[in-house]
Amino acid sequence: MAGVRAAWGLSTGCLAACAVILAALAIGPAQAARPLSKVHAHLDKKSECNSCHVAFGGVPQEKCLDCHTGIARRLSKRLGYHAKVVRGDGCNNCHREHLGRNHDPNPLDKRNFEHDLTGYRLVGGHVGVGCRECHTAKRKKTNRDSYLGASTECRACHGDYHGDAERADLADCEKCHNAFDWKQLNARLKFDHQKETRFPLTGKHARVACDKCHLGKRKFGPIEVSGCVTCHQDPHPPGIFGARICEECHVTTGWKESSIFEHTTTGWPLRGKHKRTRCLECHKWERWTPRDTDCTGCHEDDHRGQFGQTPCTRCHQESGWKGRHLKFNHDSMSRFPLRGKHRQVDCGKCHPGGKYKPLKTECKSCHQDDNPHGDTFGDRPCSNCHSPIDWKKTRFDHGVTGFPLEGRHIDQPCFRCHPNGTETEDDTVQDCAFCHADVHRDQFEGASCDRCHRGFERWNIPFFDHTLSRFQLAGRHTTVACVDCHPDGRYRPIDTACANCHYNFHEPQFADRCDSCHKVDGWSPVADFDHDGRTAYKLYGRHRDLDCAKCHVQNQYKGLPQDCDGCHIDVHIGKKGADCARCHTTADWTTNSGIDHDFGAFRLGGVHDLIECERCHGPDRDRVLAGTGPECVNCHRDVHFGSFGPQCHECHTQEYFLPASFLHYETGFRLSGAHRYVECRECHPGRVFGGLPNECSFCHSDTFAATAGSPTCDHTVCVPGGRNNCENCHTTVRWDLARPGAGCGLCEDAR
pTM for this one? Predict the structure, then answer.
């Protein structure tokens, strides 16, 4: 023992002190601590202290978890409130003990408890629900309330509402519901009816509300489905279809619109328009199976027995009853083959009232009312001249009449030349005027039409040889349409003077012929007109490039003013006089040719000659300065503040502002001596020049006062009133040397 003490460096006194402390720790808690709570009262004895405490280690968490195994398991799995908040902290930080039998070691504040910390957030309808409504468990030994291990599944509190299903997990309520409103389903349901049930939703079933099939919204599984009749009432008479089920005819996309019934199984396949026919149009509820499959079983005979026992299918087919759907061949199946325009005629035109036979095939049986010939041709058939291709295009050889048809005459219908249908009578004169009106109104009396209108190809002639007339065409006249010179078909007599066709814009200004200025190649511009030689106004500069109409408005050529203001607006409004040429030229208006400002009341000189016009007259030269006067203060600031009036030129010049030529003696105060070299501002502070006194004391009173106490001459003592007559002793040449012979006596004595 002595060796141990020596090794640890402990004295006998230290060991004794430690023994006392250990003894106190061993017996102290059982004697000094307050009682444990009721739940731990079985540990409140000396022999059980070490069940919770560790010497020098307090109450470690492991000791608590040895008894509270439920908490230990949740911590190991990182579940619940203790795993998220407490983690490695000691249990006694929250669950305090040794505070008396009536103390509750679970300090749960049910009102302010943050349920989010448990991992299950309370939202919607769960907020405000009492704790014990969800946490109903009790501790096994103590029967105290327990809040551990409560299930987060909806059915734990709300029960199994919808039942069980074979595939779907109906316990996963959040697929459809939410905690905010149980009855209001989620906007996007996570429930997949196609995969999670034995009844996939197709067609109109996909849009049906849940409660339509799941009555009361409660019974969801299992549900027995034995065909459509589970939900739908059979609208058909009982037993009419025997053992057939609904799905053989109907589909979920629509009960009435869609059908998948295979009609070929009946021995009568549906084709053409029969496919789009509704069932009840052929079938009756009283007798579903038709008596026969002949057309007359459903359709009436529109032909009223005209074709006897001939089957309908010989002419008609199921794709359509009329028009292009007909199989009837009029050429091979009748006595009247269709040719030409007969092929385009509707059947009803020739078969009115549905009459097909017997019918006559002569033309007059249909066209009697259209016969323009009457009885002219007797019984001769129409086909001698006409054909079904075109009634108006005939095969008649007109050469046998002595007037063979040529050119445009070939295409003319007969009635154009034979308006009365008198084709067989020789009353048609073979002269143009018999059929054609004389559009020239006998202007060419005696001349034959073919002199100009050659042949019968067309009436309008492509080119008339104008050399046959008195007026030869040249220049622009060759491109003019005939009617422009010959209105209303007037060809002669016509005057050939220009004024006959053209309006004389110059009348009565010129007596000259038009061709003295204008040519047939073009009316304008008049390139050959000599404006300088033939008028009193010669053109120079920009005037040569102008269009005539710029100066000769409304074709006024004579009596026009020759001054600038005759055409141009005086932008100076008469303020610069009428002689524009003093500044401007015809070459360029913006150029001041003379750069001469010597007009008006202000003449430029010196630096003013170098200033751009815009400096004074504005960026557009539209600033009016006339009438403002030539005074400098109109543009410049008066630095003298009006002390000398507005006549700045009496001292300053346009060449330079300084130095000035001011004559100071004209002010009544002649500068002499040192005054001649003094800056103006020394005597005129603040640039006040007018109304200043001439006495020396106005500027030099400080010099007078500075002599006080001087051993040479104290003016304040020797000449106290001398500040008003300094010139008696001093001069402007030098202050400190008195005028010779001047003195007050005192100064002399002092010397």
Answer: 0.33
pLDDT of residue 363: 86
DSSP sequence for 490-531: --SS---SGGGTS--TTTTS--S-GGGT-BTTBSSS-TT--H
* Long-range CB pairs of 667-673, under 8 A, 24+ apart, other chains included: 668/694, 669/694, 672/732, 672/733, 673/731, 673/732, 673/733, 673/734
Integer Cα distance of 725 and 581 in angstroms = 67
Measured CA to CA, the distance from residue 93 to residue 80 in angstroms comes to 18
Q: How far apart are CA 14 and CA 150, in angstroms?
A: 56
How far is residue 446's CA from residue 376's CA, in Å, rounded to a whole number?
37
For the segment 23-76, what is each residue's pLDDT rounded down to a tens digit?
434 444 444 678 999 889 888 888 889 889 988 888 888 888 888 888 888 888
For residue 583, give every residue at least 6 positions away whose Cβ sits within 8 Å of its Cβ, in sequence order, or none.
Answer: 576, 592, 593, 594, 596
Q: What is the pLDDT of residues 247-273, one digit of tens each?
A: 888 888 887 766 778 888 888 888 888
Q: Sign of torsion, CA 263 269 272 277?
A: negative
In the block, tokens 């000035």 appear at 660
pLDDT of residue 24: 39
Q: Is residue 282 over pLDDT 60? A: yes
CB-count exposure of residue 221 (10 Å: 0-12, 13-18, 19+): middle
CB 64 within 8 A of CB 91: yes
End-to-end CA distance of the chain: give it in Å, rounded.
122
- How much is the pLDDT for 3? 36
Per the structure block, which two tokens stand in for 440? Answer: 């020239």
CA–CA separation, 566 vs 214, rounded Å?
Answer: 102
Degrees, nearest 5: CA angle 90-96-97: 120
CB atoms within 10 A of CB 197: 19
Residue range 102-157, pLDDT digits in tens: 998 888 888 888 888 888 898 988 988 888 888 988 888 778 888 888 888 888 88
Which residues contact residue 97 at a Cβ distance below 8 angstroms, ignoring those fewer than 6 apart? 36, 37, 40, 52, 103, 105
Confirm if 696 and 727 have CB atoms less than 8 A apart: yes
3-state secondary structure of 479: helix
Residue 347 structure tokens:
């059947």
Task: Give the mean pLDDT of 717-723.
Answer: 81
